[in-house]
Amino acid sequence: MNFRRIEWIFLAAFVVLDAFLVFMFVQTSSTTSTKSSSDTATTIISEMRADNISFKNPDTKEGTGYYIAGNNESGLKQHLSQLTEQNVRMQSVGKLTSTLRTARTMSTDNMKSDLTTFMKQPSNVIHGDEYVYDASLSSSGDHVFVQKVADGEILTGTGQIHLFVNKNNQLTGYTQSYVNNVKTLREKAVTISEKKAMVALYQYNQVSNNSRIVWGRLGYSRLLKLKDSSVYVPTWIFAVRSKNSSNVSLHRINAFTGASMKSASAASSTENETAAIETATGMVWNAEY
């Protein structure tokens, strides 16, 4: 009886030991794989610098995001009656163009605040409270608000407002696009880091020697357009500028898969990099129209 009991004790001990060894093997393999992937990315980053590609040190943190869907029809036309003191017309793609009947003076020191106040008035802008000001995408005459969706922002032309301010700091009008009826399609998933996206950019030959990666942004862009709706995915968007040219190319990397997506490009004749970037961002916002 005692011998049988001892057998069971030894059997249980072996099972526990085997489970522990399997767990340790899996953990070690996972750690080794992660370390190997990290080392590979670091090596490629070094190769990029050796190719005279300049850029700021990319972020290594992963993020999260959703697959989201929205109607291709903006639905803005159904709300035109709420707008006052402006002349409005709708384009066939559902984009709204407005010209204010009387230009409104904005404060030079509080431009963002004044424009935000204008945006939040339903008689001025439809769904204006669903957008947020994006300083990095704005210039002195073109102030950009991007549509908030899920846990991010839409970084393409289907969900943005451009407010036009003249040299006298007067708001004269705006254009608006809107993704209507936004829904998440799946559970939240992990997105790749900026570093991994930059490595993918290089591996897909999207950045040449002697060039500069001016900036990288993570947001939503359209992955697939269907008859009545579109699917959006978290996307790393990079602006790449050749050191021997004023041209700025815009490239997209799927933040879920690391795959290259259709890119846009812009040719700038400006004399400084800031203006070139502004031209490039304008191309991004209008690329899908």
Automatic annotation (TrEMBL):
Pfam families, per database record: YycI
Name under which the protein is recorded: Regulatory protein YycH-like domain-containing protein
GO cellular component, as recorded: membrane
Taxon lineage: Bacteria, Bacillati, Bacillota, Bacilli, Lactobacillales
Superkingdom of this protein's organism: Bacteria
Domain Regulatory protein YycH-like intervals: 34-256
Transmembrane segments: 7-26
Recorded coiled-coil stretches: none
Family matches, as InterPro entries: YycI-like
Keywords for this protein: Membrane, Transmembrane, Transmembrane helix
Keyword Cytoplasm: no
